[in-house]
Amino acid sequence: SSDMAEHEYSFSLTTFSPTGKLVQIEHALAAVGSGGTSLGIKARNGVVLVTEKKMPSILVDETSIQKVQLLSDNIGCVYSGVGPDARVLVRKGRKEAEVYGTTFGEPMPTGQQARYLASVMQEFTQSGGVRPFGVSLLVAGFDPAGEPQLFQVDPSGSYWRWKAAAIGKGMVNCKTFLEKRFNPDMDIEDAIHIAILTLKEVFDGEMTKSNIEVGVIREDRVFRNLTPDEIQDYLQEGDI
Prior knowledge:
globular
């Protein structure tokens, strides 16, 4: 069939270099590395995601841009890198969570959502004529039968479970800061404060309630974005 013939001649944009590197994936990671910083911390009773929300101009209405997104009631995510690419993944992740819910009658586990998103990203490193996604994701959730979870998914399709993770341009400094501050027994409220403090370490200029986003899932297992006023309270408490 003409379909077959077309498939035979389709080529992947991600090809091995003679030294065995997939340079396109490395370039995709570089796109992530120049994106705004995002980080996540898993506490004993919840997970927090924080990201910087830099606008290209003061004339942009910052309420129209949302980087911390819901995938399902019990799972949220944040991206660093190319925004439009992240939208595609969020849309696919939401659909998959919906299908899972109607098929099995229970919420999709966080690990399965992370694995699904990773498989989508992997597909885009091996299919004909497509380029890899220019984003890394942090996926945070609370499973019905279990504990809080935090995953990172990269353009290569690799994914890991983390106690605390950072992506984007400030990730190296954030990780160093988190390694000093992280404590597995910490409460989610402490985690929120530490997450904001960590982001402040790499933040350019003044941090305000409108240029960062915070998403939290607590023991009620409902992921939600904090309002600017709630963020303001944390900024004041942390004396930021």
